[in-house]
């Protein structure tokens, strides 16, 4: 492949928690090509958010190297935009002003910013809502505002941390379709963190399966299925089974204990 746009080399991360050392990431190595869509999947606590925070430059205390375009990451930068699970919109700012926050560090005139903000409002399909406030939006619309804010500085890399996790199933699927449509228009390298295997297979070119304690790569799987992908297809189903098996076959994995009817209080059963 050409020189990667993102490169993790021997990355390790520990936290000090009450005098103990918690190893959150061990020996993480990954190259991401320009324009590629990589999904990182793994159970809760396996270090996915930590990895994104390191890549975006919010935390610079780690072992190894992370580089973007061959340059070491030493802090946040406009070429990396991030979208969090909770949309983190400011309730007292309009949609346009929330998106404008993504431009505070950009050397643009007010008129250029205005034009850019409105281009991105259109891109995420919220043309009629520029002056609306977050409380007037549905969960899916608010998350689209957050995506527009992540994209408005025209980053070359979009980082998404479980961006659709809090949405209902239907909105969730619509947002996945929209993310692919946005990517088709703005060819942007994308790193998505998710615990949802199906989401990873639906969207990504490559899926990195993590295992926990300490967080490390278990397997990297190429997803060669053509777009638009059919969740009900045989190939999709097979990949899903394979990845679920990878995720759940670790030694520490505890399957959820099914609740027995007899364990429930009587009042529950009567109801
Ligand atoms: N700021 C922090 N201080 C201490 N421990 C942390 C901190 N951030 C994350 N951790 C720990 O690091 C591990 C990985 O966390 P995280 O990256 O949030 O996992 P994930 O996003 O995959 O659920 C967890 O055990 C978590 O408790
Ligand atoms: Mg997380």
Describe the structure in your own words.
- It contains eight helices and ten strands.
- By secondary structure, it is of the alpha/beta class.
- Strands 6-7-8-3-9-10 form a six-stranded mixed β-sheet, with helices on both faces. It has a four-stranded antiparallel β-sheet with strand order 2-1-4-5, with helices on one face.
- The longest helix has 17 residues.
- The termini are far apart.
- The chain binds adenosine-5'-diphosphate and magnesium ion.
Descriptors:
binds magnesium ion, binds adenosine-5'-diphosphate, globular, alpha/beta, six-stranded mixed sheet, 271 residues, Rossmann fold, 10 strands, 32% helix
Sheet with most strands: strand arrangement: 6-7-8-3-9-10
CATH topology of the domain at 33-60 and 71-79 and 155-270: Rossmann fold
Q: Let me know the average pLDDT.
A: 90
Q: Outline, from the CA principal axes?
A: globular
Write the layout of secondary structure elements.
Elements: E1 6-17, E2 20-32, E3 37-41, H1 48-56, E4 63-68, E5 71-72, E6 80-83, H2 95-100, H3 110-123, H4 139-151, E7 157-161, H5 169-185, E8 189-194, H6 197-203, E9 206-211, E10 216-222, H7 234-248, H8 266-270
Parallel strand pairs: 3-8, 3-9, 6-7, 7-8
Antiparallel strand pairs: 1-2, 1-4, 4-5, 9-10
The structure holds adenosine-5'-diphosphate and magnesium ion.
Magnesium ion binds next to helix 1.
Give a summary of the structure in a few sentences.
By secondary structure, the protein is α/β, with parallel strands linked by helices. The chain has 8 helices and 10 strands. The longest helix has 17 residues, at about 170-185.
């Amino acid at each position: 492949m050409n020189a990667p746009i993102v490169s993790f080399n021997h990355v390790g991360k520990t936290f000090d928690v009450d005098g103990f050392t918690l190893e959150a990431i061990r020996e993480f190595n990954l190259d991401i090509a320009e324009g590629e869509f990589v999904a990182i999947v793994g159970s809760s606590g396996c270090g996915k958010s930590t990895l994104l925070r390191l890549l975006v430059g919010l935390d610079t205390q780690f072992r190894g190297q992370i580089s973007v375009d061959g340059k070491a990451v030493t802090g946040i930068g406009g070429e990396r935009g991030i979208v969090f699970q909770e949309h983190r919109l400011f309730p007292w700012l309009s949609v346009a002003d929330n998106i404008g926050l993504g431009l505070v560090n950009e050397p643009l005139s007010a008129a250029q910013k205005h034009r850019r903000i409105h281009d991105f409002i259109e891109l995420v399909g919220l043309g009629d809502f520029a002056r609306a406030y977050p409380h007037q939006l549905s969960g899916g619309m608010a998350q689209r505002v957050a995506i527009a804010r992540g994209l408005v500085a025209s980053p070359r890399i979009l980082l998404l941390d479980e961006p659709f996790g809090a949405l209902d199933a239907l909105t969730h699927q619509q947002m996945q379709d929209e993310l692919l449509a946005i990517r088709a228009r703005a060819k942007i390298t994308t790193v998505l963190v998710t615990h949802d295997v199906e989401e990873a297979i639906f969207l990504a070119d490559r899926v990195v399966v993590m295992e926990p304690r300490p967080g490390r790569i278990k397997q990297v799987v190429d997803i060669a299925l053509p777009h638009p992908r059919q969740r009900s297809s045989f190939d999709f189903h097979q990949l899903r089974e394979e990845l679920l098996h990878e995720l759940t076959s670790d030694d520490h994995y505890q399957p959820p204990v099914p609740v027995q009817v007899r364990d429930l209080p009587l009042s529950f059963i009567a109801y």
